Amino acid sequence: MKYLIIFLLFFSNTFSVEVQKEEFSFGEQVWEEFKTPVTTNARYILFGSLLSAGMVYINKQGREYNKRETFDDARPFGDYGYIGETLGWGYLNALYMLSHLTYGYINDDQESYKATEHMFKASTYTLFATSALKMFVNERRPGYPEDTDSFPSGHSSMSFAFASVVAARHGWAYGSLAYGLATYISVSRINDDWHYLHDVLVGMGIGASYGWGLKYAYDKELPYQFAVIPADGGGVVVAGYSF
Q: pTM for this structure?
């Protein structure tokens, strides 16, 4: 996981944005984007998820509860939770980026490039924020107490970042399908003993707030663009620039 974070942060340097026509350094740019869950209207998504998770957590006797309570001791997905476990590793995010980047390159379509960048940044910041919280909180998993990466759910955060970018860029018809899939992934983590409900709720909020937060910021004050440039030897160079 830590190597994936380093990889994404390294390649995020290929992108550049202009905020209110003011030039920012790379660090300032990253900070402005990282704050979008609380500096845009996406704050309502994030705070709503935190409030919901807090209510779930504090209303359990002794602040401890069995993961099955919500489902009356049932496993709603039975033995099929592994599907959500597999999809939630960021494959949906990567497939979206690859398909839009390829389409944009073949058809010189700027909107596809923008969609690729949007998903890339939403996924990168979501992964970083989620991993940082895991290292700081060190909550034990309900079914695997030797593992202290329970809070928040990374599968939930990454899948809801994916779904939110889809909804923000392609409308609610596609967005509803993406959110349905993200919900399946999230619930499967409770189904398979990997997370508590509050872990999943916070993960959902983190991912969704980055997906929508970056969209709100770009629409209002963060114009951006990047292009794929053919390179010698048949390769390509992804170059970022602002306008």
A: 0.79
